[in-house]
Amino acid sequence: MSQDFLQKIGQTLEQRRLGLMGRYTKTAVLIPLVFTEQGTLGVLFEERSHTMRRQPGEISFPGGHFEETDGTMGITAVRETSEELGISQHAIQVLGELDTFASATGLMVYPFVGLLEAYPNLSPNRQEVERVFVVELHRLLEVTPRKYTIPLQPNPPQDFPYHLIPKGRDYAWRTSQSEVWFYELEDLVVWGLTARILNHFLEVVRFVGVT
């Protein structure tokens, strides 16, 4: 193998854009902060439309899939929030980004935090949003969430070539776990990925020391 060939490999590796192995669906969400009538800071939630194909009636943050025309995940979060809440993108002030979440199902979620300057003048898209509601930040900080752990076990198909791997059917597969969070807010339940992102945000708020 020539030195020139090795140099070309090095140049190719240096020039290529790094990514993630495997297929991931990139999505972005926004944790919308608003000032209530009392002047306190609150978090706005959506109840998904009951006619939605996926997760109808569940509590979530605005967000959706990345589009190439967005350019950045932050723009995706702002665009989706604008479309779902019926407000101008200019009325959304992005404050920053939280940690990225990669799910075992191939979902890559980029959470952002932003202030809705247009609140309460919203016009939610009724095809996606049943209603919106605000929970004051200090109330969320008082809630003790519950966390449950679900084991994830590989389940190979019947035609899996066990004869090609050491120990065949007795191979010691690695297992993993998935954390499922719950926030119970009187008659409302925030759970799953939304609750996990909320918990991460509240950890940041506690670190800052602002309530």
Question: Helix and strand layout, with pairings?
Answer:
Blueprint: H1 3-15, E1 25-35, E2 41-48, E3 59-60, E4 63-65, H2 73-85, E5 92-97, E6 101-102, E7 107-116, E8 129-136, H3 137-142, E9 146-152, E10 176-185, E11 188-191, H4 192-208
Parallel strand pairs: 1-7
Antiparallel strand pairs: 1-2, 1-4, 2-3, 2-8, 5-7, 6-7, 9-10, 10-11
Largest sheet: 8 strands, mixed
The low-confidence parts are none
CATH class of one domain: Alpha Beta
> What's the CATH H-level superfamily name of one domain?
Nucleoside Triphosphate Pyrophosphohydrolase
Which shape, going by the Cα principal axes? globular
Mean pLDDT equals 93
Q: How many E strands? A: 11
The second-level CATH architecture of one domain is Alpha-Beta Complex
Distance between the termini: 63 Å
Instruction: Give the SSE order as H and E letters.
Output: HEEEEHEEEEHEEEH
Tell me the helix content: 10-25%
Provide the β-strand percentage band: 25-35%
CATH-defined topology of one domain: Nucleoside Triphosphate Pyrophosphohydrolase
Structural class by secondary-structure content: alpha+beta
| Computed Rg | 22 Å
